[in-house]
Amino acid sequence: MEKKEKKRRGWDEYFMDIAELVATRATCNRGSDLKYVPGFKGVGAVIVRDRTVLSSGYNGSPRGLDHCDDIGHEMVEGHCIRTVHAEANALVQAAKNGIMIDGGALYTTASPCYDCFKMLINSGIKRIVCGAFYGSRYGASDKVVGLAAQAGVQMEFLRADKAPDQLDLPEPKPEEKETETVKSLLLSSNLKIKKLHPMAKVPDYAHEGDAGLDLYASEGASIPTGQREKIKTGISMEIPDGYVGLIWDRGGVPVKKGLKTMGGVIDSGYRGEVIVPVVNVSGENVEVMQGEKIAQIIIQPFEQVEVEETDGLGESARGEDAFGSSDELVESEELVELEEEAAIKEEEPTIDEITKALSNAPALSKESKGFSEPLSRMGGSEAQERRKNENRGRW
Ligand SMILES: [Zn+2]
Ligand SMILES: [Zn+2]
């Protein structure tokens, strides 16, 4: 009789499978993707010692209190605080039943937040096996991984496809081919997107017919008023030849919060992470949440021109009367029109706010100088002129 070869599950896989199953009871869907319920998120954890499951927990509301799934999340600074985390619930269950977990291991479908991590250390857990990287409050999850060794805790990521190679967002490795594509009707080839960070979101069009793809923050950030911050998207892209990606402000949340995108041109040859430089012109601190729409990128064709130096330019009706460096306004019809247009299009933040914010900002880095320095140095009327100029180019 032929014997079928049966491959048994390894212990780590086995316990992680159990943790994944436990996660299906979660009542707040703000964790990592669940293997057993496609499209649903949650976190599950099991505590194991001597190859025996001692306790389990999933992220859910305290007993008797309302569930997120029923009444919505309880959001504070970008995080739902209603639930007890899976790891904490596993600890609590052991405590409640008087089970000794000292020296044990914890399997969790998403890496622990800083709070849970601290409790795990003090509970005597010596090994933490994580299914996915969870970027929790203010990026403190990165800290957790960094502190594990110091605390004498062995920390591992079991499912390599979900684990970060390094936590400081590595440059893409050429041999990796995990790319996603954004389909296009016009481009001869699709826009290829590669995730560099496990929590990164692939850019997408919010509505049919939108010009720009939404870009999402891959980690949270706290931006003091008047300060600049480079918001990471956790993705890199391969823009087809002959096309360029232009980063623009996005209406909605970023504008309401007073975040101004400081421009960005993504050339087709660039394969590094897409970073969105922003300045906080709101007058108060702004929190950017992980997964939040932060800007948009418009992919469009361009042409390169032959540059030719010459002594004389062709004549035009306007000649050299333009947005000069003097303070005298040029009273042409066109300018008045532009002025009116600018007044109509005026949206917060105003140029004064930007100028004020930029003058409060620390010395600007070389890369961002081009945009911000001239504005911060300009006087009011000059800045107005500049704005007209910009509006002109824009609309
Ligand atoms: Zn929730
Ligand atoms: Zn936690």
Structural overview:
The C terminus is likely disordered. With 395 residues, this protein is of the alpha+beta class. A five-stranded mixed β-sheet has the order 4-3-7-8-9, with helices on both faces. Strands 12-21-16-18 form a four-stranded antiparallel β-sheet, with no helix packed on it. It is 25% helix and 22% strand. Strand 5 and strand 6 form a beta hairpin. The chain has ten helices and 21 strands. One zinc ion binds next to loops.
In short:
This protein is α+β, with helices and mostly antiparallel strands.
Query: How many strand segments?
Result: 21
- The helix-and-strand class reads alpha+beta
Amount of beta strand: 15-25%
Q: What's the number of helices?
A: 10
Report the helical percentage: 25-40%
Q: Which descriptor suits the 3D outline?
A: elongated
- Radius of gyration over all CA atoms, rounded: 26 Å
Summarize the main sheet: 5 strands, mixed
Bound molecules: zinc ion
Low-pLDDT sequence parts: 162-177, 362-383, 386-395
- How confident overall, as mean pLDDT? 77
Arrangement of strands in the largest sheet: 4-3-7-8-9
The termini sit apart by: 79 Å
